[in-house]
Amino acid sequence: MAGLADSGSNPDVDLLYDINGLAKDAPAWFDRVMEYVGEYGLLLAIVLLVVWCWWSVRRRGDEDAASTVAALVWAPLAAGMAVLVNVPIRGFVERPRPFLDHQGLEVLVQGKTDYSFVSDHATIVMAMAVGLFVAHRRFGLVALVLALFGGFIRVYMGVHYPTDVVGGFALGTAVALLLSPLAMALLTPLVKAVERSPRLGWFVRAGGRAERDDAVIPEARSERTSERDLAA
User: Fold this and answer.
1) Least CB-packed of 13, 96, 159, 219 within 10 Å?
2) Angle at 139 between CA 137 and CA 143, to 5 degrees
């Protein structure tokens, strides 16, 4: 795999120089912003989207709230599992960082000594974005756009080849989708059990189960009382 980057005529390398060349022409302050966004900002933004989606789902309290919350729990778990899968892949491919083999790159983050393929950042953000998309289409689409932008920034920063990012996207998507049926089969009953708990039900629906029961029972009693009055 390292051989893919040995030739300057390689499309992967050409695209690396084209995208990273934007960093050379940009102001220093803009590069600092892109550095922060690429390292922390986009990942934080996707995490906040997951939290926002969870808050919205539990506040609405729909009938399928438990399954949606289970899918939201799966999103970060999928990201963690995808990174674990990436560990042996990196060790097998052993692709050096692009700035070690190519001169003239504008490297925005120093100290990267691990292997380049597959990109951990791209893997994490895409796995979370796909997991969020499974749970909620609208929030998921926003997360997917952020994940794609995050992959672009990793190349812009000079720390990954484009194929590192594409590989990360593929790995994150595969783990999030292929393991989703098994994850949902395990997580949904667990979340439903939490929903029935008097103390933890708030995690799935606002107010918890006890408050919903209180809201429903009086109405049912009123209906039954009305029926008895009419019968009398």
Assistant:
1) 219
2) 110
